[in-house]
Write a structure and sequence with these properties.
By secondary structure, the chain is of the alpha/beta class. It has three helices and nine strands, in the order E-H-E-H-E-E-E-H-E-E-E-E. The chain has one domain: Rossmann fold, CATH 3.40.50. Strands 4-3-2-5-6-7 form a six-stranded mixed β-sheet, with helices on both faces. A three-stranded antiparallel β-sheet has the order 1-9-8, with no helix packed on it. Strand 2, helix 2 and strand 3 form a beta-alpha-beta unit. The radius of gyration is 16 Å and the shape is globular. The two termini are 14 Å apart. The structure holds 1-O-pyrophosphono-5-O-phosphono-alpha-D-ribofuranose (PRP). 1-O-pyrophosphono-5-O-phosphono-alpha-D-ribofuranose binds next to strand 3, strand 5 and helix 3.
Length: 182
């Protein structure tokens, strides 16, 4: 969650990842997921809010039978960094026991959100647990949480669009852009 907004913000004119690049990458990820799951039913767990567009496209791209549930997590911190304090604002509605769970995230940054979610989910005894993120910011990682499927990797920079926000804004952009001034 962004708690402050810096004046003089500017979005990059050119997208970092265009809508077409995102769509193509999702197609490849879906093919990889289909190969790995061999037709076993997947329970996608989308982490709200940021993953809402990604999961909507991913679930339509996979051919494997898939059911879906949502969690809403919020991390607190400064404008650009998580404090590691993760709050579950909305828990799952389904039991994940003996299900093949695939967590779907928009971005993994420090990894603290995922680490906390992963241990919560493992306690509920799924048949398997994998993680898929659209964006991986490996350089910011302070945990060794395993990420199984990665859309794009970036080193640094604050990005918005395609679900990702700055103070709740820009989630609806069809592509991903860099914010200057953060
Ligand atoms: C973002 C993102 C991840 C988390 C990643 O969520 O969606 O869940 O931060 O950061 P981390 O790896 O450093 O823990 P945010 O709390 O901004 O909520 P949102 O999804 O509603 O935008």
């Amino acid at each position: 969650m962004i708690t402050s907004i810096t004046p003089n913000l500017k979005l990059s004119k050119e997208p970092l990842f265009s809508a077409q690049e995102i769509a193509e990458r999702i197609k490849s990820l879906a093919a990889q997921i289909d190969r790995d799951y061999h037709g076993q039913e997947i329970l996608m767990i989308a982490v709200l809010k940021g993953s809402f567009l990604f999961v909507a496209d991913l679930i339509r791209a996979v051919r494997t039978p898939t059911i879906i549930d949502f969690v809403r997590l919020a991390s607190y911190g400064s404008a650009t960094q998580s404090s590691g304090i993760i709050e579950v604002r909305k828990d799952l509605e389904m039991s994940i026991k003996d299900k093949h769970v695939l967590v779907v995230e928009d971005i993994v940054d420090s990894g603290l959100t995922l680490e906390s979610l992963r241990s919560m989910l493992l306690n509920r005894k799924p048949a398997s647990l994998k993680i898929c993120t659209l964006i991986n910011k490996q350089s910011q990682r302070i945990t060794d949480v395993p990420v199984d499927y990665i859309g794009f990797s970036i080193d640094d920079g604050f990005i918005v669009g395609y679900g990702l926000d700055l103070d709740e804004r820009y989630r609806g952009l069809p592509d991903i852009r860099i914010v200057a001034g953060v």
